[in-house]
Amino acid sequence: MRATDRRTDYRLTFVVLCVGVGSFSLLQSMVTPVLATIERGLGTDQATVTWVLTAYLLSASVCTPIVGRVGDKIGKERMLVFALGSLAVGSFLAAIAPSIGVLIVARAIQGIGGGVLPLTFGIIRDEFPRDKVPGALGTSAALLAVGGGIGLVVAGPIVDALSYHWLFWLPMVLTLLAALAAHFFVPESPERAPGRINLGTALLMSTWLVALLLAVSQGHSWGWASPEVVGLFVLAAVVLPVWVWAEARSDSPLIDMTMMRIPTVWTVNLVSLLFGMGMYSMFAFLPQFLQTPADVTGYGFGASVTQSGLMLLPQTVATFVAGLASGRLAVRYGSKAMLVAGAALTSLGTVGIVVAHDHVWQLLVESTVLGLAFGLAFAAMSNLIVDAVPQTQTGVASGMNANIRTVGGAIGGAVLATVITAGHRPDGFPVESGYTHGFFLLVVTSALAAVVAVAVPVMRATTHLVPGPQTEAELEALKGGTAAHGRAR
């Protein structure tokens, strides 16, 4: 029996959603530590192999808000199956890729799976009892950071024991199972946004996003003053206001500019931009710092890929614990307080790395603080966004928030790469001050995120077309007594 015939228990739905989000987040980070292995395995060069990351970034940035919006309009369950199916297909192609070109195409297909995030948040809002929504949102949002951390931990052991191909075989199995479970067990959306999909504004949004992210991600290797990078920045600067103008005047906008101007939405999005700069940059450069050979450079720990991942395991555990606790904390203290605390703890943990990084125990403590911060902040941002927008815009609002965080990560990574590599030792390693200066920039962005978080107004959307069930008891009543007529609303 399809889930559309009878409302599936929300706990089963949650398991399926978590598998999907976890698989997507794993694919974001597992490939990064083994790029050199992929480069050797496919006989390519360093400049080309970075497109394995860039293609995924560009595809996910474009597809995340678009898939979320399409889900708002035609049904979140069917789009969830599509997003998970894309992850599975892309993972299969990546696992069997005979050349770097095929692998890059496969990674672009995987990027479509970015739509899993906004669809997950929308389904939780549609299907869960109201008192369970904050905790479910917090846990699923924290899984994005947890998956990123786990990817760094398991990449080395998987490659050492098997091969880099298994970095794609394993997620393929998970996402294929999740897609089948979503088809059979996740209920179809009871809420639909009216209107058509505006292809013109979707094209405009894709153009400025790709131009901006391509310039940022390739600026370090192509040269910030190169004609290609300058031209891409100019293109993004020209198309962005045109896109905003077109969306504001559209009868059926892809991204509702009125929604984007809601005070809670734009302030939380600004926090996401600043927070993304710190979190994703830390994922990228802290393992590199740990892997730097101390006997050669005088800093670092000479850790292998596997060892550096294990050293960051406490951070991942802390993120997961914070995500699990986020629901109760949000009820007791409010999501805004959690967001402020998450941003402030990020700044504190990063300050610790700047001033004390000579011993393993110091970095274990500091990265654990960062893990708690990531879990709290991810959960808070998701809850604040979902609470502030109408139910029919949950997917697109969540998608744009995730997208803005990704843009922040791309900008932060590019800036840090430039700062860290500004001074090189004769042996080719960055000087220690490059890392300390780069991490100090993240202290600044995290502190700014905390300041903006203090200014976030707490509000709940008053234009929800249909209220969801308020308690678990109400949900059970809706499943039973009103099954013949669908969900009671």
Topology, element by element:
Elements lengths: L9 H20 L5 H7 L4 H4 L1 H24 L1 H21 L3 H12 L4 H12 L5 H29 L4 H20 L13 H24 L4 H22 L8 H4 L2 H29 L2 H4 L7 H7 L1 H21 L1 H21 L4 H29 L5 H27 L11 H23 L17 H10 L8
Helix pairs in contact: 1-7, 1-8, 1-9, 4-5, 4-6, 4-7, 4-10, 4-19, 5-6, 5-7, 5-9, 7-8, 7-19, 8-15, 8-16, 8-18, 10-11, 10-19, 13-15, 13-18, 13-19, 13-20, 16-17, 16-18, 17-18, 17-20, 18-19, 19-20
Describe the structure.
α4 runs parallel beside α6. This protein has helices spanning 10-29, 35-41, 46-49, 51-74, 76-96, 100-111, 116-127, 133-161, 166-185, 199-222, 227-248, 257-260, 263-291, 294-297, 305-311, 313-333, 335-355, 360-388, 394-420, 432-454, 472-481. It is an all-alpha fold. The chain folds into 2 domains: 10-197 and 254-462, Growth Hormone, Chain: A, CATH 1.20.1250; 198-253. GO terms for molecular function: transmembrane transporter activity. Pfam families: MFS_1. Keywords: Cell membrane, Membrane, Transmembrane, Transmembrane helix, Transport.
The count of strands amounts to 0
Class by alpha and beta content: mainly alpha
> In sequence order, what are the helices and strands, one letter per element?
HHHHHHHHHHHHHHHHHHHHH
State the major sheet. Answer: none
The number of helical elements comes to 21
Secondary structure: helix percent: over 70%
Radius of gyration, taken over Cα atoms and rounded to an integer in Å: 22 Å
CATH superfamily of the largest domain: MFS general substrate transporter like domains
Indicate the overall shape: globular
Number of domains: 2
